[in-house]
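Usage

Read records sequentially. Each one opens with the input sequence:
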Amino acid sequence: MARYRVGCNTVLFGMTDVGTALQHIAWTGYDGAELAALPQMADHLQTGQGRDYALSLRRQAADLGLDLFAIEAATAEPARLEGVLQAAAELEIPVVAIGSGGKTGDDASFREAIDLNGRLAELAGRYGVRLAMKPHVGAAVYNTETALRAWGEINSPHLGLNFDPSHLHRAGEDVADAARRLGQAGALFHSHFRDCPNRTERGPGTPEGQIPGRGEVDIPGVLRALSDAGYGGVLDLEVIGARAYCPSRAMGIAAETRGYLRRCLQELA
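and closes with the structure output:
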């Protein structure tokens, strides 16, 4: 059984600055953090600031006992993504999570997404950073089949997949089987980890509904499948929709998740 390191995406603390977000993540016992570079939700990464900014942010995280695991950019726009990739290189953050873009069920859109993400992978390689593309409901890459197809066609060491149980559940997948297939293919670079209350909602549910253990996803089964398939990366909690919450309410979500995942991982060991 893999010993996973567990992180928290700062998007959960979109109501605060990055320093306050990191402090709350540290208080709740996480091993590290994923920085949200999401202007509409949580913009916790300043691009174009140079090495002094990077050193200061890394020191801030280290002083709290946190590693910086990843950045979530969720963009396929090359100019903006390049700024994020440069910041990732300066911060020594190895993975940037993105979406594929495009539309589900549109072959022309899928082909465009393949072409674009292939070029983005080349761009990431110049900075020594890897991209983790998430199968996302509504996007060109949205389930196991399209994810493996896109990953195989792009065929770049700088691009892998980002495993998110909530999106695969909403796509009608057996999530544990998806974890096993994606892991055995060697495609997974990263994981956003959250639950989902059902398959029918337009989004992943309320922030509380995304807490692992509260929804429909078989979280222990997914963790076992990931481990059996050889995935050894981090698990980053990604809860969206909490920007209107106070920090203490968001911290409760982070704390419940950390305790639940710790127990699940202990039982699977």
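Summary fields computed downstream for this record:
- The domain at 6-268 is CATH 3.20.20.150 (TIM Barrel).
- Residues 9 and 151 are 24 Å apart (CA to CA).
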